[in-house]
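Hey, I'm writing a tutorial for new members on how sequence and structure tokens pair up, and I'd like a real worked example in the thread rather than a made-up one. If someone can provide the structure for the chain below, I'll link this post from the tutorial.
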Amino acid sequence: MNKLNFSLSIIALFVSISAIAQKPTPFTEKTADISKIKTILDFPAEGRTSKNGTGYSANVDLINPKPKKVALISFYLYDPACGDASKSNNGVTATYSAAIWRTPDALAQTHIDGFYKNSIESLKKGFKEYGIDLLTPSEFLNTDEKKDFYYEFNQESGKKEKTERTQIGGYVQATVSTIKICPTDEGYRPFFVDNEPVSECQSSNYINTGIGGANRKMTSSLGYELAKGLGVDAVVVCYIVTRKPSKKKEDYVVDAVNLFMFGPNPVSSNSEDKNRGQFYCGTRFFAKQLLFSDSKSNVTSYDNVGNVMTALSEKMGNWVINKAKK
């Protein structure tokens, strides 16, 4: 009887371990149904209804013909870091501490490789639903001249990219570099779009101003100069914001997934125009720090990131082609 009880205990243990291993991560679970993935359009009101095409945000009614051949110039993981500051007081003296951290380089590479492998076809398919061919570097860099142009291209921006972040606690401070990393051997460059805040992405930052406000140098640099040089109708940047919420735990979350399209201003012919290139559209999914790599269960999963890319690309395609907000 004791042997039977022992055997049943062992079986129950294995069943329990198996159940834990098979339980989907919060990110996988939350993104299982495409129809329930909440995405937002990210762009400012400025310019997008202008009948004469002014402004850095495009009025898509004026884009004729519509984009058919679009280059995916960037696909990368971006960890802007997490920080913490504290103060303790023993009644005599106050002690301050500050810490800031991010995903290690090698692990970030593993993560973006996994996300890319599980989402690129869904991203391309989402655009294809609206007649747009999304080209990867192996497809749009089809001549030596284009390769040289792309890899030597010097992006301009009116905003300074923050490559380091600092956490301050009283008179103590800690600094760490941010990380932007592309999939292994896929040919992408991590072009800068915006500085995400430390510790948590917030949708309220983008409802009215879009990508943190006007950056005409960036939209013209990417949307006009780079797009024209590559011989495409527009360019797209995709980046996934992930974080390590706790310094003490090896847990990793998806904070946001972002997709942006830039292209030539359809009514601008003056080389002195500050808006030669325009911001066509932005779509964002704010995951609110959904765990995709769990130290407790030792599970890392990139499942359903393709669903997020489908939701984002279809929303973008529907706006650029049909000017539909939903």
